[in-house]
Amino acid sequence: MDDYLPALLAQASQLISGEFHRIVLAHGFTVTEWRVLASLAGGRALSTGELARVSVTKQPTVTRIIHRLVERGEVVRIDDANDRRVTLVRITDQGSRLVAQLIALAREHEAKVLQPFGSEQSAALKLALQRIIALHPPDGMPAADS
User: Fold this and answer.
1) Which helix (H) or strand (E) holds 47?
2) Where residue 33 falls among pLDDT bands split at 50, 70, 90?
3) What is the pTM of this model?
4) 54-88: string of b/e by CB count within 10 Å (b at 16+)?
5) Among the listed residues 42, 54, 46, the one whose alpha carbon sits nearest the alpha carbon of residue 100
6) 96-112 pLDDT, tens digit each
7) Percent of the chain, pLDDT > 70?
8) Dihedral angle, C-alpha 36, 37, 38, 43, nearest 10 °
9) What is the distance between the alpha carbons of residues 71 and 24, in angstroms, rounded to a whole number?
């Protein structure tokens, strides 16, 4: 199993994420708060379900985190103009300011992790991982372009 892809991905993810999670905790955020805020940092509003998927967190946990972030003024809930049953979440200016430093630190951490591989191999690794993700959507259905 030393070369089994899922095991290798899980080990690499745990090791690399764990390094950065210590930084997140030192800045006063939980890992899930960081993941949710970072997912919203681009300014695009996302549904709770989308946030759960991109933050790799169970939806009930994301719902609790959103409630906490709303209370702290870091995100707001907004109605979806296309579907009244859906509530979207958007980061506030305050939330953006708070998470900006962590995003910069995340980029520094990523650069340190990838530095031994050089830019070409790093880009190829990211592309391969993005392709794996695209080919294995969370609902188990094959991707439309596969």
Assistant:
1) strand 46-47
2) very high
3) 0.83
4) ebebeeeebeebbeebeeeebbeeeeeeeeeeeeb
5) 42
6) 999 999 999 999 999 99
7) 95
8) 110
9) 20
